[in-house]
Amino acid sequence: MKPPLREAIALEYGHKKTPVISAKGEDELAQRIIEEAQRHGVYVAEDPQLLALLSRVDLDQEIPPELYTAVAVILSWVYWLKGMRPGDEKRPS
Q1: What is the pLDDT tens value at each position of the chain, 93 positions in all?
Q2: DSSP string of 16-78?
Q3: Which of 41, 88, 51 lies closest to 71, judged by CA?
Q4: Is the CB of residue 62 less than 8 Å from the CB of residue 86?
Q5: Domain range annotation of the chain
Q6: Would you say 51 and 64 are in contact if contact means Cβ atoms under 8 Å apart?
Q7: Ramachandran angles phi, psi of 55, nearest 5°
Q8: How many CB atoms lie within 10 A of CB 40?
Q9: pTM of the full predicted structure?
Q10: Which residues sit opposite 20 in a β-bridge?
Q11: How many CB atoms lie within 10 A of CB 53?
């Protein structure tokens, strides 16, 4: 029996108006995406339902409006974990 497929999708947001799918992959590529995110201190959320919805969006495309709320929940969690407030990502470092 083959082990379950591992998938990963990366979103880019901060300097863009709407989150964009910046990377997506399965199996080994998914693992590399996750490892690279962790190496850069990017938080990784595990949400199979959101993954299934985001996997329908093409690479380099903005997320559709029907996914705004689901992605906003993840982003608010990330802001909270990093001690940030919305808009902080747009400020020069």
Answers
A1: 655 568 999 999 877 789 999 999 999 999 999 999 999 988 898 999 999 999 999 999 999 999 999 998 888 888 888 788 777 766 766
A2: SSS-EEEEEEEHHHHHHHHHHHHHTT------HHHHHHHTTSPTT-BPPGGGHHHHHHHHHHH
A3: 51
A4: no
A5: 7-90
A6: no
A7: -65, -15
A8: 7
A9: 0.78
A10: 12, 62
A11: 17
* Tokens read off for 59: 């690479």
List own/partner pairs for 79-85 with CB under 8 A and 24 or more apart.
Answer: 81/43, 82/43
One-letter amino acid at 24 equals K
What's 7-90's CATH class? alpha beta
Structure tokens belonging to residue 76: 């608010």
Written as one letter, the residue type at 11 is: L
- How far is 7 from 28, CA to CA, in rounded Å? 9
In this prediction, residue 49 carries a pLDDT of 92
